[in-house]
Amino acid sequence: MQTAENVEHMSFQAEAKQLLKLMIHSLYSNKEIFLRELISNASDAADKLRFEGLSDAALYESDPDLKIRVAYDKQARTITISDNGIGMSRQEVIDNVGTIAKSGTREFFNSLTGDQAKDAHLIGQFGVGFYSAFIVADKVTLTTRRAGLTAEHGVRWESKGEGEFTLETVTKQDRGTEVVLHLRAEEDEFLNGFKLHSIIRRYSDHITLPIVMKKEEWDEESKDYRIGDEDETINQASAIWARPKNEITPEQYDEFYKHVGHDFEPPLAYVHAKVEGKQEYTQLLYIPSHAPFDLFDREHRHGVKLYVKRVFIMDDAEKLLPGYLRFVRGVIDSNDLPLNVSREILQESKDIDSIRAGSVKKILGLIEELASSDQSENQEKFRTFWKEFGQVLKEGVAEDFANRERIAKLLRFVSTHDERAEQMVSLDDYIARMKPEQDKIYYITADGLKAAQSSPHLEIFRKKGIEVLLLCDRIDEWLVAHLHEYAGKPLQSVAKGDLDLGKLADEEEKKAQEKEAGDFQDLATKMKEILSEQVKDVRITFRLTESPACLVADLHDMGGNLERLLKSAGQKVPDSKPILEINPHHPMVQRLKYEEAKFSDWSRILFDQALLAEGGQLEDPASFVKRLNDLLLQNVLSDN
């Protein structure tokens, strides 16, 4: 018997109160989802016990048959979901139940749109499926004991979903977790065996352990069904991935994804394959239709589950798939791996390496099917995929040398061919449009599409009708550092090194430019003396047609955009100065040739303007403004 002194009253964080209120009153349009979420949690608890039981069989205590039990009580108006899985300790209850979405509650609220249909998937996305219980219940009681602890170490958690919960130590003879939902007055439809059966079969038929309920028997006296004493298994209790593909409906595939992916939306695409030969294993892998909030957290692993002969081993995407495919969800079940594989994975395992390579091949093949399909539905799916996961896929160019060419073929960009933000230009598209004399793939990196489109470095390329790829994602600097060529064509930044258009440049035009450059060489030398602390060199350029000047990085130096990205991340960067290139056809540069009094000011103005044009920041903005105003005022007075 517990006394009031044993009960500890605790509060959710302020954001959690908002979340509970939101879920109860507006977020879910499909109330029956609560049962699927609680059954999924129970299934995960059984998986964890199977895994820990591989090295400590005593955790099974005297109950080796894992199952999930669902019961209801019309008089008490409760639904109970219980399992004999791993259970939780007191601290695990506080961490996993007492703290709502501890890794992303604030991001959760930032992601809400107010549209129920769109917001529903966020519950699974942020790991708060347990709290869906409050959609139908005005009080939830959870009683649990972790396997291996004594009966006196049971824990009871209780909350009315109003911002507070109680926690007390209780005696619990059996390991595992029991969740009791005290239903709201308007939720009597769930106090019905047929209703609960249909929900379980619809959403949880694929769960790999039995979900049992007491059989209902017809009672002539009350003219109603009554709950009997005999158990019956409601679900098929068979692994969906082990069944023949022709026996699985698209709806069943979708429902299994929602379980394994903790998602409320169907997947974008999936692949189900059985690999036979030297090594036998089955893959059921899914590409989600939207990115999770923690997509760019490379340390967070919860994507693909590994089973050995249907026994859960681990949930570690780092070993089963490379980091750039961390968005993939699903299961891999091997017939050949030893059950103690978890210890081998921590070291080296050729078997795991083989499974990993095969899984990468399947996923890339699935993406390639979407990318190359002529069907409008698949084309739209690929657009969705690229929008959600394109930046992550780009990481694969650096990480996966064996598949670099395949990944590069899937990359999509915006280019000067059209410049609409939704453009999907592949490297193959670019090569197909290259001019006959062109031997390079030209690109520019910038911090945003507008910055790339307005870069002065593009002027000569636009004039000559040469397409340039506009790389605007932060990952693009990392990408081009590792993708030096594609299909035999080198990639060339238009903002690094000397402008070399090769055969695209006219010979007579070259000769005229060389002569013109000689005429302005003294000017360039004089400017270099003035700007020696800011630039490595000043030289004449013909890459500009409208702007007076631009900054370029030396061929082997770090570009300005990458330097700014690294500095913003707190990284140290090597000291290097840009090269200032000036346009001899521009009136400002031509005037400088005859300027004496304000030569230094005009030179600094040109440098500062070039720095701003490429997205850089001025060291002394106030001096720039004063210098510019003085020169403008001088021109106004001279005109008068």
Automatic annotation (TrEMBL):
Residue span of region C: 565-640
Start and end residues of each Histidine kinase/HSP90-like ATPase domain: 30-187
Cellular compartments per GO CC: cytoplasm
Domain of life: Bacteria
GO-annotated molecular function: ATP binding; ATP hydrolysis activity; ATP-dependent protein folding chaperone; unfolded protein binding
Binding site for ATP: 37, 41, 83, 88, 96, 102-104, 125-130, 177, 343
Gene3D superfamilies for this protein: 3.30.230.80, 3.40.50.11260, Heat shock protein 90, C-terminal domain, Histidine kinase-like ATPase, C-terminal domain
Region: A, residue numbers: 1-343
NCBIfam families: PRK05218.1
Role of this protein: Molecular chaperone. Has ATPase activity.
Name of protein: Chaperone protein HtpG
Taxonomic source organism: Nitrosomonas halophila
GN (gene name): htpG
